[in-house]
Amino acid sequence: MPNTQIVRHPERAAYDRSTVDAILDAAYIAHLGAIVDGAPVVLPYVCARIGDELVLHGSRLAGTLTVIAQGTPVCTTVTHVDGLVLARSAFHTSMNYRCAVVHERARLVDDPAEKARMLDAMFERILPGPATQVRAMTDGEREATCVIALPLDAASAKVRIGGAIEPAADGDPSVWAGVVPLALRAGTPQPDAVTGADAPPPQLR
Amino acid sequence: MPNTQIVRHPERAAYDRSTVDAILDAAYIAHLGAIVDGAPVVLPYVCARIGDELVLHGSRLAGTLTVIAQGTPVCTTVTHVDGLVLARSAFHTSMNYRCAVVHERARLVDDPAEKARMLDAMFERILPGPATQVRAMTDGEREATCVIALPLDAASAKVRIGGAIEPAADGDPSVWAGVVPLALRAGTPQPDAVTGADAPPPQLR
Hints:
Two copies of one chain form a homodimer. By secondary structure, the first copy, chain A, is α+β, with helices and mostly antiparallel strands. Chain A has one domain: Pnp Oxidase, Chain A. Helices cover 18% and strands 40% of the residues of chain A. Chain A is built from four helices and eleven strands. In chain A, strands 1, 2, 3, 4, 5, 6, 7, 8, 9 and 10 form a ten-stranded antiparallel β-sheet that branches. In chain A, strand 2 and strand 3 form a beta hairpin. The first copy, chain A, is globular and about 65 Å long. The two termini of chain A are 34 Å apart. The mean pLDDT of chain A is 91. The interface between A and B is large, with 93 and 93 residues.
């Protein structure tokens, strides 16, 4: 089990599953780091927490995923940038964020029934609700897809919230300080040319 | 020089600096992967491109940054999620994104004048405009901060834009397909209790 203890700003650390799960569940992507040919490689993957695992997928042809699927140590990190924390000095200027780090070896999901279940659950994370409106996945499509699962046993979270922490001597009222919230927001859905006028638009999570 | 050739979906790859720079310049954070005690560690850092380098900073007390500053191989990745690409099948459902990957060893910036210049430039990336409104950084604050720079010699980009690519047989007009744009957006700035009514609010980039 790798060392997941957070040393820097331990007051921002959390190790409980509910904090970790909430961060993972709010994410569309995770950055996975692996050692490939002796050097680190960090790539983004669509992710979904399914029960006690973080599940990622990709093409069976993708080289890095093939290495990861062999069960080498990997580190998978999800970060949400929640705001700019503007202080009255550069030093105390910061960001609010939620970050979850999963230290684990990946498990290649090769049981066909489990793989089908996980792919359905991943799709459901992108577009909630029964996937009955879309064409079912074919066996060939499922075979072309590589699914890996990372147990959440060694996961940790780090969260910064609130305004700047600065010495009272910096407190000049003529200088604006505070928080500018940031969030990933959806714009207006843009249907493709085939979509009919009566097709119900997507209901995002 | 590590292998930065993109194998999977090479039509989405770009190696020109203008594409890489635009992706880095739009980012608040990068995910840096290093090998610590034999295992990969991926952590988020505030980042700013300054000329031909991607610059990161952190506390001098932070353990992972100390390892990175020693010049071991690292991989630093910036990803923007630009949209959900909803197809009429789970298999062709995708995401639009812009991703830049920088494969390089970090350079510890320890020249005091260069470090001061870089810290000013990093602050300017968070809050554009002259930093004259905030208190100048003290020598002690500068010494407490570790600055590293990653040359952009071995950087690559991967970009997906546009709608779903699906077979014509899937084109059922009763099913909505298209793109839901996603973007990190700023909310209403929230001043702290010290901020006076006349303090000019921040002008974000």
